[in-house]
Amino acid sequence: MTWIKQHKIIALISVLAYGFFVAIFSIRINDKQIILKGDLTSVAEGVSINGAELNPDFYTIYVLSLDRPTLFQYAIALLNQEIDIADIHSGYDGYTLEDYFIMGQIDEALSFQNAIMTAYDKASDIDSTISVDAILQGYYITYIDKRQSGLEIGDLVVGVNDLDARFTEKNEFFGVFSNHDRVTISVLRHNQRISKEISTLDSGLYGIAMEPKYQLTTTPVVTNAFDDDLVGGPSGGLIQTLDIYTTLLNIDLEGLKVTGTGTISSDGIVGPIGGIKQKIFTAADNDVDLFFVPNENYLDALVAYNTLKDPAFELIKVGDFDEAVEALLVRLSNG
Fold first, then answer.
1. Cβ(116)–Cβ(244) below 8 Å
2. Angle CA(141)–CA(147)–CA(150) in degrees, nearest 5?
3. 3-state secondary structure of 27
4. 292 near 59, Cβ under 8 Å?
5. Which of 1, 139, 296, 300 has the fewest CB within 10 Å, making it most exposed?
6. pLDDT tens per residue, range 64-75
7. What DSSP line would sit under 128-150, residue for residue?
8. What's the domain range around 313?
9. Residue 176, Cβ density class (10 Å: 0-12 exposed, 13-18 middle, ≥19 buried)
10. Do the Cβ atoms of 235 and 43 come closer than 8 Å?
11. Residue 84 domain-assigned?
12. Can you give the pTM of this predicted structure?
């Protein structure tokens, strides 16, 4: 006590400094996330056709995100031009790391599904021995508002009211939700059928997102098309499709290292993604030759691209799979 009395100012400064450091390293900003550079992943690690690996020169690209950063992490992000800060949408209130992981794994599995359907369909236009047959199994729940209890991400919706999802045209099936504020939904969860009555939320919506799940039969046979790992999400769809397509048609990339981003629909439309700035910076760290980017992300990608010193890769804007194939073939023909 005597020392403290004699050194009041030093003691006060010490207490304040301690409190400051505790605060910046422990207080979190709950409505923000920071997005950082990630790495590349070879598509060939996830897919084989007739037992043979895909072309090894295609790479999907991922970024890292950190939800609810501390004040210290937030300050670092503000000072680093390669890190972005984004809002966490209120629709994800209550989500856990496990929820995000499951959602990412389902999105990635559906991405592979759409990639296979698109690649095989487009390749069959050139080689008639290539084919794909798709039978609808239902609709995966890919997102759910936590206020909608009793359903889970990953549930396979097989019916609504008296309609069977497998035998009902898509617009009619989803029209049931649009035309009623209360429905009885049937799902498969761990091979068990569960029925649940649900109602719209105060937004007037059900707070559920669903995507079609198909059983695919392909010639030649594609296997190991999806493997659980720590990287998830749908943003690798375009690159996955290009790899499968070029492998089916034996197109030689002649040593090109190709990456990019963009979702893929079952009819070949390329959709926008998040983290485009960090993906450009990640590509620059990995000596790639081509980077495909969706139309909607192109301007943001170009801004990041133009900050690079002597970028070694070409940035290619595409709106659908056909445009991506055409751009790739032009690059190959030009050497």
1. yes
2. 55
3. coil
4. no
5. 1
6. 888 888 888 888
7. TT-EEEEEEEEEEEEEE-TTSTT
8. 37-67+105-130+220-334
9. middle
10. no
11. no
12. 0.88
Instruction: Write the DSSP assignment of 48-95 as a string of letters.
Output: EETTEE--TTBEEEEEEEEES-BHHHHHHHHH-TT-EEEEPPGGGTT-
The residue whose two tokens read 């072309």 is 55
User: Into how many domains does the chain fold?
Assistant: 2
Q: What is the CATH number of the domain that holds 156?
A: 2.30.42.10
Nearest C-alpha neighbor of 43 from the set 62, 59, 65: 59
Residue 313 to residues 24, 31, 182, 298: CA-CA distances in angstroms? 39, 35, 52, 15
Q: Same structural domain for residues 190 and 294?
A: no
- Measured CA to CA, the distance from residue 72 to residue 78 in angstroms comes to 10
pLDDT for the residue numbered 92: 77
Is the same domain home to 120 and 249? Answer: yes
Q: Give me the CATH number covering residue 277.
A: 3.30.230.10
Indicate if the alpha-carbon torsion angle 136, 210, 226, 62 is positive or negative: positive
| pLDDT tens figures, 184-197 | 999 999 999 999 99
